[in-house]
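explain this:
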Amino acid sequence: MPVSDIAHYNLRIPKENMEALCLFYTSVIGLTVGHRPLKSVGYWLYAGDKPLLHLSLASVDEKREYDKHNAFDHIAFSCTDLTEFEAHLSHAEVQYKRNVITETGRVQLFLHDPMENKIELNFSTV
């Protein structure tokens, strides 16, 4: 019974951030809004037919600390076409840092969403 994959990642956010995050993850990262079988406010964002990222509404009385005092560091996505993606990020004026891991044949791009969550985009160079 080993774990075989990540089903999804959820960001529970205030209403005032919902549309900005949805727009960021669709227009910058390239996920698409898809079917969400729930009645509550939010989005399921897909890569192909897989709902990778859920955006869910935090209730107004929910006490959440939106800061960096926790163990979460980043979410990573597997991507293709590094050149096109870098041009897209530059055109969208999204700042990122590039890291090359020669041993594994990978290039990583690190950036942040509008709520400062760190994102890693992985590209194979082999």
